[in-house]
Design brief:
single chain; five-stranded mixed β-sheet; Nucleotidyltransferase, domain 5; 13 strands; alpha/beta; Lambda Exonuclease, Chain A; 3 domains
């Protein structure tokens, strides 16, 4: 059955489409972070239906094609709005999020849990639906995307959604959808997997579930890891059978200076360390030094006063404090309830961070944004919070400007720099190893009734956030020792 999911998979990669049909067991199951995003999408769908109080939901059936006659019966009975309207013809099947009757035909509404209109990603989705519905004889006269509205602020959710009319754009690509369907039928009829090379498309517009399978033999950085490499040059290298950066000919013109510098650094295993510049940067620091990091939750549907969709709300922080004599102490806060964590977290923050001293973070725009949002939510503390923003010192800038190492693998992230500068520390030994996992664990923890399990999850979160700031301390010490 050629469904919308299959169509979107095909437009991203014909090999993934074929594997989903014949080798589905090779797909990686969604990880907890992906499952969280899927649940958020389901919640958004439910909220979207509330905008249509007269809507009728087509009952779920394990075999989706059995929902098509139920949809036809609802239309025949005069339904004006249908949720999960299902249409089946030949080998094509689609479910429409929302279908509403108009004076001239039917209005197809696709619900997205994003806060904007992504034409390249969303239009093929709607075009396939329109094409299939037209094949069944349904008269579609309008198509829209319903997405979350960035102007919405909790608790007023009356403007939670925005509606974008995409009728003309969808009609323009309907011929492409028809051609794609014909190509899908040819591919799915093949007995052998299509020969499609790995590439950047494996992660865009969505990470492919067959990524681990297709990349399992890849050993080293590839040409697809080169930043600023023009697509035409990338295709030229791929056509020549060159996959790895180490195999790019020295005389191959990469055009972009940044791409050329990146390739040279990796192939020659170069390190570039400007000790004088690093010293000048470190000399601007004022003791005591506060090594600081937030962990946040970003619900699609806002749940805390004044917040918008996907606003990052801090629920935890870690702070290592280094004084001028080299004494190191640690302060932290973790909110363990499901209520708004901001006010108690802020009170703890103001208690632990003094009014003088540099606040060292890794990627300052993130912490700056959270501090500014706290100042907006609690204006009585805005002067203190604004002062903290002014004292932020971004450790990442050292590795963007003055310290480059081939072992970073092309990334300046904390998790790439740490194994090189402080190899004794590692995230691999932790239960929580990144911010997305922290969000999942925090939601589990605040909803956990078993005290022992709740404490175990809290300990995992504390260990992760603690390492984030301890890592910055050890990196700082390494930089000082240069």
């Amino acid at each position: 059955m050629l469904t919308k999911t299959a169509y979107l998979s095909f437009t991203q990669c014909a090999q993934a489409f074929w594997l989903a049909a014949y080798r589905p067991h090779l797909a990686a199951p969604p990880d907890p972070a992906m499952q969280r995003r899927l649940r958020a999408g389901q919640d958004v769908d439910v909220r979207a239906r509330e905008r249509f109080p007269d809507g009728r939901t087509i009952p779920y059936r394990p075999h989706p094609e059995e929902m098509a006659p139920l949809t036809a019966a609802a239309i025949a009975a005069g339904a004006t709005t249908i949720f999960q309207a299902t249409f089946h013809t030949a080998d094509l099947l689609v479910k429409v999020d929302i279908l509403t009757r108009t004076k001239t035909g039917w209005h197809l509404i696709e619900v997205k849990s994003s806060t904007g209109y992504k034409a390249d990603e969303y239009l093929p989705d709607v075009a396939f639906q329109w094409y299939v519905l037209a094949q069944t004889g349904l008269n579609i006269t309008q198509a829209s995307l319903m997405h979350l509205n960035n102007d919405c602020r909790y608790p007023d959710l009356s403007n939670l959604f925005a509606l974008a009319d995409v009728t003309a754009d969808v009609q323009a690509i309907l011929p492409q959808a028809a051609a794609d369907v014909a190509a899908m039928r040819q591919v799915v009829a093949q007995t052998a997997v299509p020969d499609v090379s790995i590439g950047r498309h494996c992660l865009k517009p969505q990470p492919c579930p067959f990524y681990a399978h297709c990349w399992q033999s890849v050993d080293g950085l590839t040409i697809y890891d080169v930043p600023h490499l023009k697509p035409a040059l990338e295709q030229q290298l791929a056509a020549a059978g060159i996959r790895y950066i180490r195999d790019i000919p020295p005389d191959f013109a990469l055009a972009d200076k940044r791409a050329a510098a990146f390739v040279q650094q990796l192939t020659r295993q170069e390190m570039t360390i400007d000790c004088d510049a690093i010293r000048r940067e470190l000399d601007t620091l004022v003791y005591p030094l506060y090594f600081f990091d937030f962990e946040t939750i970003d619900p699609a549907i806002p749940t805390f006063t004044g917040c918008k969709p996907y606003q990052h709300t801090p629920f935890q922080y870690s702070c290592h404090i280094l004084d001028a004599d080299g004494n190191l102490s640690h302060r932290e806060y973790l909110h363990t309830g499901a209520d708004d964590p901001r006010r108690p977290l802020l009170h703890s923050l103001l208690e632990h961070i003094g009014e003088t001293g540099s606040i060292i973070v890794y990627y300052a725009p993130f912490e700056k944004g959270r501090l500014a949002e706290l100042a907006d939510a609690f204006p009585e503390h805005a002067p203190r919070l604004s002062g903290m923003v002014d004292r932020l010192w971004d450790q990442l800038n050292i590795f963007r400007k003055h310290y480059r190492h081939y072992r970073f693998g092309g990334s300046n992230s904390l998790k790439s720099v740490l194994p090189v500068l402080a190899p004794a520390l590692s995230y691999q030994r932790l239960d929580v190893q990144n911010g997305e996992q922290a969000q999942v664990v925090w939601e589990q923890m605040v909803g956990e009734a078993d005290t022992a399990v709740k404490e175990q999850l809290a300990a995992q979160l504390r260990a992760y956030c603690h390492l984030d700031t301890l890592a910055m301390v050890e990196i700082h010490r390494t930089l000082v020792n240069l």
